[in-house]
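hi! just following up on the protien thing from before. the input was this:
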Amino acid sequence: MGIIASTHYTSWEPLITDILSCTKCRLHLSRRKAVPGSGRRDTEILFIGEAPGATEDEMGLPFVGAAGKLLDSVLEEIGIRRNEIYITNVVKCRPPNNRQPERDEIEACSIYLESQILLIRPKIIVTLGAIAGEWVCRRMEIRWLGVTKMRGHIYRGKLLGLEVTFIPTYHPAAILRNRGNLEDLKRDLRTAIDELSRIKNVEKEKVTRPLSSKTLLDYINTTQSRKAETHST
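and the predicted 3d structure came back as:
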């Protein structure tokens, strides 16, 4: 077993193995292939969707259907390569007829996503759609108000003990149904890039900020000088 009780996975191999053979909820009964996720495991930007669709279920890879192709085109347009990020879903098996995953299915699968987050340690988490957005909000103790109200904003806080920036946006499948939201999706993903640049600049400033040139000896000498001045008055 790669996991005991609620303990998170500490390495990728048992995590992926257990996802591929998982029988924790009813979704395994109708799946073809479980879909753990794909991409860079040391990425700084993690994308989280809802659940695999028909093409994903067939291929065992996330976002490879029509919605995935749309996402790829948007990523390419704003300068992000698919192989530079990691992308996964809240649940790793396709719900029948592409229905939304139910609460108990989400909870049964959450140990996998939580473990992925802890292993990747991303600086930015972009959620695609309501299921993923609500999942992150619950763990960051943020009130979920829906994608339409929450997208366009940046949320900073702790998730599973990690400092992260959370950026919710539309699921690409929703864009396929309503192209009017395409520019919003692009803006949100550009926001993620800008936020990552800001974080890196802050980290760089911390590293390059000059430390005090005073040494312990300087401190001792200063203290002794002050004492001497006190005794002489």
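The beta strands are 38-39, 45-49, 86-89, 124-128, 155-159, 162-169.
The mean pLDDT is 90.
cheers
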